[in-house]
Amino acid sequence: MDEEFRSLTDRLADEAGESAAYRRLLATDDDEELARVLVERERPLWAREIAAFRLGCGGDRRAFEALVLLLNHRDPERCVSAAHALVRLGDPRTPRAAAALATNTLRTAYALHPVRLLTALRAPESVPALISTLERLLGPDEPHWRVALACVEGLGQLGDAQARPVLEAALPHPRLGGAAEEAISRLPTG
């Protein structure tokens, strides 16, 4: 059992009430049973999350839609688990979905994990989405500075020279300046 799965099971144990259904979803090796949980009516969120996580980590693309919904959830722990499973899923739709979530101006408060996922994916969509998101978060009274910081750090990790102008624009920001300087140092010169 990997650390992220252990974290998920610990977190959902109380929510599921340690029920027989909870124990069954953790124990089953039947992907069809897990896939049914994703589409059956009146299944609790914890059950759908377990099923999507297990299918996603196993590379079963039937988990994609549920994982993207969880990536955009208001509960950060659900977002972390979904991002973990999406990386392992390897679905080619993931970068586009993460970019859409990261750049959605109405969901900026929930963009931290899509931004981090884009960095981990290192997909063609990653740098343009992180640049676009960071550009709009450089205002002086921006409340979503953690998302901006994740963009700065991600752009540094991705090391794409296209990011230089937006990273330079982030230098004067008190919460972003140090990370922006570090990110710029990782960019190719010339």
Automatic annotation (TrEMBL):
This is Adenylosuccinate lyase. GO terms for molecular function: lyase activity. Keywords: Lyase. The keyword Lyase applies. Pfam families: HEAT_PBS. The keyword Methyltransferase does not apply. It is an enzyme of class 4 (lyase). Its EC number is 4.3.2.2. It comes from Streptomyces yanii.
